[in-house]
Amino acid sequence: MKPRVFVPAIASGVLLWLAFFPCDLGPLGFVALAPWLTLVRAPVSGWRRYLAAYLGGFTFFALATQWVRVAHPMMYGSWLGLAVVMPLFWLAALAVLRTLDSLKLPLAVSVPVAWVAFEFFRMHFPTGFTFMKHVGAYQMIGFGWYFLGYTQHAFTPLIQIADVGGVYAVSFVVGAVNGAVAELVLRFCVRPAPQPVGAPPISPSPSWKKVGRGLAFALVLFGAGLGYGFWQLNHAPFGEGPKVSAVQGNLTQDDKMDDPNGLLQSYSDLHYQAIQYDRAENRFYGDPPDLVVWPETCCPVDWCDVAPDASLGNAPQGFQRHRVDSQDWFLNRQWGTNVLFGLNGLEWDGTRVWKYNSALLVKPLARDPLWKPGDPQIAFSAAAGRYDKMHLVPFGEYVPLGDELPFMKVFTPYKHDYACRPGERWTRFPLTARDGRTFTFGCLICYEDSDPYLARQYAASEPVDFLVNISNDGWFKGTEEHEQHLAICRFRAIEARRAVVRSVNMGISGFIDSDGRLVKLPADRWSDSKKVDAIVTAVVPIDARRSAYAQFGDWVPAGCWLLALVGVAVGLVRRKVA
C-alpha cells in the first residue's frame, strides 16, 4: 500500500493523542486533525480513503484510552472495544465532510459542523438521547471523553464560551482552526494525482480565495471566543460560600473490595482529621468545616431506605434488620459536621430491593444537653437527602442485556452481582453552615461529570450554589486517567457557572471555581496530587451568574446536525441531477 494517505492519517492520531494527557500539549489540538483532513480531497479510491481514516482514529483511541485496561484484566476487552468502535464516528464524520465539501464550503466551516455533530452523537450513543424516553428505550450512556474542546482545558480565556454552548462550542472553534490549517496543507503540500495524457489535471489543492475565506472564518471565530472569554473573566470577586473539606484516600479498587474494614478505617481517620477532632482526647483542636465529602463508594456501610409509596412491613426480614443496623450506624453517632457519603444505597420499593450508587447527606442534630452516657439512645444525626447516580457505566454498574444474555456477566470486573438501578432525580442537597447561612448543592457521581447534560440541569432551574463530584478513580492506579478526568470537570464548572468540589479516591481531588480555574489541589502539581492521602479544605467560591448553556442546552450540536443534514440532502440532490 502506498503511504500517501496512511501516514498522514496515523500522524493525526498521534498528534491528537499528544494534545491530551499524559503529554497535555494542548496547542496541538488546533492542528492535530489537519493531516487526517487531507483525506477529504485525496485523489484515492474509496476503500483506501476510509481505511486510512479508520487507522488514524484507531491509533488515537488505542493510545488515548489505554488506561482503561489497568482497571481489571477483563477491561482489556473494553479498551479494545473502544479502540475498534470509536473510529467509526470518524468515518461517519469523513463521509459527511466529503458531501459538504462537494458544496464548495471551506473546511473551516464544514469540519466543525461535522465533527461537533458526531461528538454529540458519541456522547449519547446508542440510547442516551432524551427523545428516546417517548419510546421507552432511554438509558444514559455514551463515551464523552476526548472531545476536541477538552484539549484546551488550560486555555482559560477561550474555554469561557462553554457557558454559551458547552464544550461543543470550544470544539467548534478548535475544529474551525483545524479546517483552516488543512486548507493550507492542501494548498502547499498535496500534489495532483497522475492523469492519462491529455486529461485535465485533478487537484485537491484549493484556490487562494477559498483558503482566505477559511482562514478569515476561523480567525474571526477564534477572536470572538477569546474576546468573550476576557470579558467574562473581568468580573467582581466571587462570594464566600461554606467551608468544605474533600477527603482523598489512596486505595486501589482491589484494596477497597478485599478489605472493607481497612477502607472504613482509612476514610474515618481522614474524616476526623478533616474536622480537626482528637478522638483520644474527645475534643476539637480547630474549627471544623461546614461539610466533609467522602468519595464514591468509599463508605462500605450500605444506606437502607424505603420508597415513599412502599411499606417497610412488607420488606424481607433480612432487609429490615439491615435497615436498623444501617440507620444506627449513620444516625446514632456524632460526625462533627455535615457529611456527604459515597456509598451503596439499598431501597425497598414494595416488590424488591434495588441497589443504587448513591450519595447520602447526613447532618448533625442538636443533642439534648441533659443526655449522659448510659441514657437511652438518641439520634445524633439525620439524613438530609440522597442522590442516586443516573449515568451508569456499562459492565461496571450494569450489564447491557444482562437478563436476555446472561453470559455477558463474565465481562464484569466483579465476582458478585453489582447491578445498579439508575436514579431519576437531580437532588438539591440543603446545607446549613456553622454560621447559620444556608446553601444548596448538586452532586455528580464518577463519570457523570463527563456528561454536559447532567451538570447543567442543576443550573437550568432552581440553580444550586455549587456542585460536588465524588468519584472512585482507584480503578486506574495513577495513570493519566486522573488528570484527564480533572480536566474534563473544569468544563462542567464553566457550563453551569458553579464551582465544583471534587472528592476522588486516589485523586485528583480539589476545588474548581466557576471560571474553570483550579482553586486548590492536594499538591502544587497535578502529578503529585494523585496516589496520596489528602484532605483538601477551602471556602467554596459562589457565583451568581446564570449560564446561557444551562438555559438553552445543546443548541450548538443541534445546529451542526441541522446544517449537516441539510448539506447532505442538497449534495445528494445535486449528485442525482448531475
UniProtKB/TrEMBL annotation:
InterPro entries: Apolipo_AcylTrfase, C-N_Hydrolase, C-N_Hydrolase_sf, LNT_N. Its main location: membrane. Residues 247-542 form the CN hydrolase domain. The chain crosses the membrane at residues 49-67, 79-97, 135-155, 167-190, 211-231, 555-573. Pathway: Protein modification; lipoprotein biosynthesis (N-acyl transfer). Signal peptide: none annotated. Its EC number is 2.3.1.269. Coiled coil: none annotated. It is a multi-pass membrane protein. It is found in: Cell membrane. Keywords: Acyltransferase, Cell membrane, Membrane, Transferase, Transmembrane, Transmembrane helix. Belongs to the CN hydrolase family. Apolipoprotein N-acyltransferase subfamily. Catalyzes the phospholipid dependent N-acylation of the N-terminal cysteine of apolipoprotein, the last step in lipoprotein maturation. This is Apolipoprotein N-acyltransferase. It comes from Gemmata algarum.
